[in-house]
C-alpha cells in the first residue's frame, strides 16, 4: 500500500530525516525501524533502507513505519547540498567526510588535505604512545601476498572480521601512525609555510607507501596511497 493511501485512511504522523549526503540518514532510520519492530512486532514484512559507503545511494523518498496507533512513518530522503560550492576548503571537507564522491575533488587532493590538517594540528605527535600498542595472545597465519591495484580497493560486501583480521587491521593502523609520527617529528621545516608543508606531505606519501607495503615500482602507487589512508 502506498504511503499516500495510508495517510488518507488513518491518522498518520510523518517524520522526515534530512541531511547532507552520506551522513548516515538511512542507517539511523534502519536502527529506529529495528528497535520499533522489536518492541512492537507486527505481521508486516520489515523493510530496510539501502545503505552504502558512497554518497547518492538513496535516490527517492521512502517511508518506514515505526509505530502503530497512531501510525508513525519516518521518511528517508536523498542527501541535499547547495547547488554549487565556491569555497575550495568546504568542498574538500565535504569530500573528506564522504559528502561528495572522491572523484569530484580527486583522491590524491583529498589525501593531501587530510595530511595537511593532521600536520598543522600536530596530531601525529600525539600518537607516540600508541606505536607499541598490540593485541597479544593471538596467533594468526602469515599474511597472504596482495596484488595492489585500484580494482582491489573498491568497496565490497564483507563478512564479519575474524580475530586475525582485527590484528592485521591493528597492525596497519599502527604502521600508518608510526609513519606519520616519524616524518613529522623528524621534519625540520615549518608546517605553517605552504612550500614546507607540501614537501612534508610528499615525504609522508613515500613513508605511507612503505607502511602500506605498496611496491615501489607500482605504476599506481601514487593513487593507491590516497585510497588507503581514506579507508583507515
Automatic annotation (TrEMBL):
Q: Where would I find the G domain in this sequence?
A: 15-122
Keyword annotations for this protein, in alphabetical order, are:
GTP-binding, Nucleotide-binding
Swiss-Prot/TrEMBL GO biological process terms: mitochondrial translation
Is GTP-binding there in the keyword field? yes
GO molecular-function annotation terms? GTP binding; GTPase activity
Read off the InterPro entries from this record: GTP-bd, GTP-bd_ortho_bundle_sf, P-loop_NTPase
Q: Which domain of life is it from?
A: Eukaryota
GO CC aspect terms: mitochondrion
Its protein name is Short integuments 2, mitochondrial
Q: What is the organism of origin for this protein?
A: Abrus precatorius (Indian licorice)
- What is the primary gene name for this protein? LOC113863490
